[in-house]
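User: Here's a protein and a ligand ((3S)-3,7-diaminoheptanoic acid). What would the complex look like?
Assistant: Let me lay out the input and then the predicted complex.
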Amino acid sequence: ANTIYLKDYQEPDYLIPKTQLTVEIFDDCARVSSRLSIKKNHSGERRELKLNGENLSFISVKYVGEESIAYDLCDKYLTIVPKSDDFILEIVNEIDPKNNKALEGLYQSGDIYCTQNEPEGFRKICYYLDRSDVMSSFTTRIEADKVDFPRLLSNGNLIDSGEMTGDRHYAVWEDPFPKPCYLFALVAGDLAKVDDNFTTKSGREIALEIFVDHGNEDRCEHALESLKKSMKWDEDRFDLEYDLDLYMIVAVDAFNMGAMENKGLNIFNSTCALANPDTATDANFFRIESIIAHEYFHNWTGNRVTCRDWFQLTLKEGLTVFRDQEFSADLNSRAVCRIEDVRALRDSQFVEDAGPNAHPIKPASYMEINNFYTPTVYEKGAEVIRMIHTMIGESNFQLGMKKYFDLFDGKAVTTEDFVHSMEVASGRDFKQFKRWYSQSGTPTVQVTSKFDEGADTFTLTFTQKLKNKSDQVYHLPVKLGLLDSNGEELELIMQGKSFGTETVLELHTDSQSFVFEGLKEKPVPSLFRAFSAPIILEMETKREDLAFLLSYDSDSFNRYEAGQRLAKLEIESLCEALRDNKVPQVDHLVLDAFSKLLRSANADEAFKALAFAVPSLVSITEQQKEFSPVIAQKAREILSHALAEANEDYLAEHFNRYNAKENYVFNAENMGLRSFKNMCLHYLLKLPKADYISLAQDQYDTANNLTDRFAALQALLQTQSTARDEALEHFYDLWKDDAIVINKWFAAQAGAPVGSSDQLIKKLENVEAFDIQNPNKVRCLYGAFAANLPQFHKEDGSGYHLIADKIIELNSFNPQIAAGLSKAFKKFGALKGQQKDFMKKALEKIIAVDDLSPDVYEIVSKTLK
Ligand code: B3K
Ligand code: ZN
């Protein structure tokens, strides 16, 4: 596979100001006729014009009004030498959407035709300059059978439609906003429509339309509500208004990722759009709200201002994730949202950044750009934007956004252009800060402290430890406070000046000290509040101090964090005991601290449900000196069991108290109550009592929403009981024909701490509801199994071989999904001995495949290196 470098970027030789497409859908193929107005884009000699085109059946090319033209055709390009600087080309080709199982370009999901063109799918529809810095005004005519395809949709406004002979009809769409072709979309099919409307702050009425399979009309309300909230929020907080008169969303079952922000015509994975209380959990409702928002926010950050090239991907993704995170935080609990965002960042991005496929948020090179839609580009990218926000504040940040749109609306730009806007608006210099864009790996910040009794001063010293040899020190914000022994916030005084009780310090050298004055006693520091920088904090803190912060820190994130650090220290001790074959004993200080939190009056249920949960297996194994998920899992269970035992009565009582049978309402408060209640249930089932199994069984049987029903199923999945088997069987019978809900059944079993195995996976892939061509099912079965660390890393290597075989199978028809699954081998470098040999064999089996896609090759070859 070829490597492409950012340093080789060159402006396009030609532009395409206008694109007119006609797409005719027939039974056995689709015919695409394009009429492209092309213009030379430099002042020198005329160069050849190389149009991208892949998997296309070429039919003809000519200048408008002429007969023939000299051209060269290969499997990747159609090349001509233009006769003038300004001309119109007419090209015809055919495509085969029915057999397009890679789900890129124009393909079929069930009976629906739909497209996915980001990043480089448009070249699989027709010959084009498929690059994001070529922006064009599109007019699209679609023709198809009117019985099979009553809906014909594309971007922009419908300007014409009508009947044709032979039971066919047509529709013509015109998008007034020039856009790169990756934002082009087309949908044809028999879909139900649910609609609504939104009036913008300037008084324009926007029609909102959701298109779904017939029968799913009752699952659209939440997406529509979320869309209206997004539109309002973007007006209120960012002063951004929608620009077309129509906003359409189509939900399809076969989709490689979550959703796509095509101009005026978003296409969604049905799991990320459709919900009602019976078919979706709180987590689904929340995620749908945030994805609907994310795609909507792209209309400005991504579509109106787009990326110059794909190395700039974080320009739109990091910024848009930051925006959707802020949206969720403004609408729900900010504290809970921040904790969950950081948890996700550490469990996915930190791991990626420590593994073989680590890359900067702005990569310098790639083999296959599809491999770079990563937690690094998205989530770490959002953290980088957040640091700017933390350092300059909301009002300067908004001025920066204004500047960004003033300078770059309608353009394809770079991350430097964004940072420049922020610099101009805030008067700051972010030259050093930009290292966050080009260096990979999570930096560590070591902190030491010193209290000087006589001088009443407290000194904090921060030292940066970088990941790679060539790295240079970062510029980053440290939000902090100091607590006295009563848990009160202390005034921060430096060099005689007061900074209130909370401030943001900035680090820019490898070691920096800050002296806080006027302190009568040694304070307890609360550092990196709200996780103000994406770093690993290394600071020796006594267990007593962590317990203290868990009780008193005014910053919810750090309160949670103190508990997690305390639990991790304990799990580490338990792992040691297990390794030494000693009887593991759980420290009373730890149990007391958590029991106190559970009963604390100054924390809400949603927070407690998060803070009372033991750290994730990933976050534990990432800190192990020797990677050992089996021991980590055991230690984790010992701590959970001890917490359950120590609080059994309280958990049982509070489970009952919140087990009210009210109607399901999705809002932050109810969501918090449900998660607390289900956390109680989860802990109770750690205890071997038939009563608690009945409790879960009863909740499973009588729940009036999927959140509670599925939580009961998951609680039962921790046990080996007939209740578990009955619930699983019941769930399958109930939902086996539902493309969305049944996936939970696969994921819950594949990811279960008890009972999952390669044998089980081989059984599940044979049930009728499974389909390896559907990416959601692949993620829920094989993806969930590969994320089940003790199973995937089983000593005999069976997990590795199962996943390797599936990657090889997927590689032959859907390289993107195969490559995604290949990332499961990321711990290769941390393995030892026989375990490593087993994984190596599995990886070598993949690498040896003929016709290995560049997607899979890039991931696996970098893993083996
Ligand atoms: N921009 C799309 C992602 C496209 C992924 C292509 N492999 C969705 C999003 O980030 O909103
Ligand atoms: Zn996005």
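Summary: DSSP finds 26 helices and 32 strands in the chain.
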